[in-house]
Amino acid sequence: MKSSLLTIVTILFFFIGCEKKIEPVKVGEMNEYKDPAYGFKIKYPKEWKNFGQAGKAIFAKSQEVLNKFIDPRTGEEGAQVTVEVIRYFGKTPDEILNEGKENLKETWQNIQVMPDAPLAVAGKQATNVRYSIPVTSKTMIQGLELYIPGDTAMYKLTQMGYGDHYGAHGDVFNAIINSFELPAFVAKKSDVWAPSGNMETYKTDFFTMQYPDNLDFVQTKKGANYLAMGMRADRLDCSINIDVFDAKKLSVEKVWDQNKGKYKVKSSGQAKIDDQNAFFADYSPMRDINSRVYFAVKNDKVIRVTINYFAPQKDVYFPTFENMVKSIKLK
Fold it and tell me: Which of 208, 218, 263 is closest to 238 using CA atoms?
């Protein structure tokens, strides 16, 4: 019996001794991200990708790494960095900070939040909120939230590591934080934007559309689509985008069934675009930004129209884009 026990202990020590430790991750080549809506800049490892969107960038090596933080039973261990823009809208920086800490406690069970600590980032005095979250008896998710005050918004920079990956990515985290740049100051506009009364006609091989001539055209990636275009108002987050792609002999109902799962739909319904049956869905891709997407089919082509607008000023932007959709004539 003693011999068997000794053997088991010896085997356990063998495996513990052979357990691989995570080597410190070196800071290699980095890419730079400039947020298209708010203008902040930050660098991240070249092998990582951005899984976020305008106003909330999420950097990680893979989607599997992000999945691990959501559900520890899945995914791949690793690290992630997020930069989120939180507009003040009458709130003080302290109020936003306290709301952030409360949100941490509501999101994670058994979280341990350390006392605030000051830290200089991008030439500003930031607040450093560190925390740890037990996921197993031996494994913790460790994180840090940096609240960096800007002129019109708070910038929340979050770094997280699963288990030993937090310490292993220490140099990478430092390089990312040190690369962060606040957007250049933009003079405030005293007047509320309004659509021009002068209308132009946008013509393509697939549709025509009326639009106010004070909208700006924006470059969009065409990819495998037949067409991709975009226009915006005075704000980068107030825009209309249209892409046309192959319907593959599917009806608009089938196209809608295949695509609706890609959106966090708040409400949906049916509409008409140039007397063609269409489906639409309302959703919110990020805080204070609402969107509406339309799907229509004509001549075996899908016409997808996406409207984005600043929610607190819906009455300023949304009617303009909706009128543009109503003006569409399909070919």
Answer: 218
End-to-end CA distance of the chain: 85
Same fold, 21-179 and 199-330: yes
CATH superfamily of 21-179: Mog1/PsbP, alpha/beta/alpha sandwich (3.40.1000.10)
The reported pTM is 0.54
Strands of 61-206 (E only): list them.
79-87, 112-113, 117-121, 124-134, 140-149, 153-162, 199-203
Across the chain, what does the average pLDDT equal?
89
Cβ atoms of 311 and 291 closer than 8 Å:
no
Query: CATH number of the domain at 199-330, please?
Result: 3.40.1000.10
Both tokens of 3, joined, read 């011999």
Cα distance between residue 323 and residue 77, in whole Å: 48
DSSP 8-state class, residue 65: H
- Residue 267 phi/psi, 5-degree rounding, is -155, 155
Whether the per-residue pLDDT at 321 is higher than 60: the answer is yes
Name all contacts of 317-324 with Cβ < 8 Å and 24+ positions apart.
317/193, 317/233, 317/235, 317/238, 320/195, 320/212, 320/233, 321/240, 323/210, 324/209, 324/210, 324/211, 324/240
**pLDDT tens digits, 157-199:** 999 999 999 999 999 999 999 999 998 765 455 468 889 888 9
- What residue type is assigned to position 201 of the chain? T
310: closest CA among 323, 321, 324?
Answer: 321
User: Which of 216, 195, 211, 239 has its CA nearest to residue 329?
Assistant: 211
Q: Where are the domains of the chain?
A: 21-179, 199-330
| Distance from C-alpha of 166 to C-alpha of 83, rounded to nearest angstrom | 17
Distance CA 320, CA 317 (A): 6
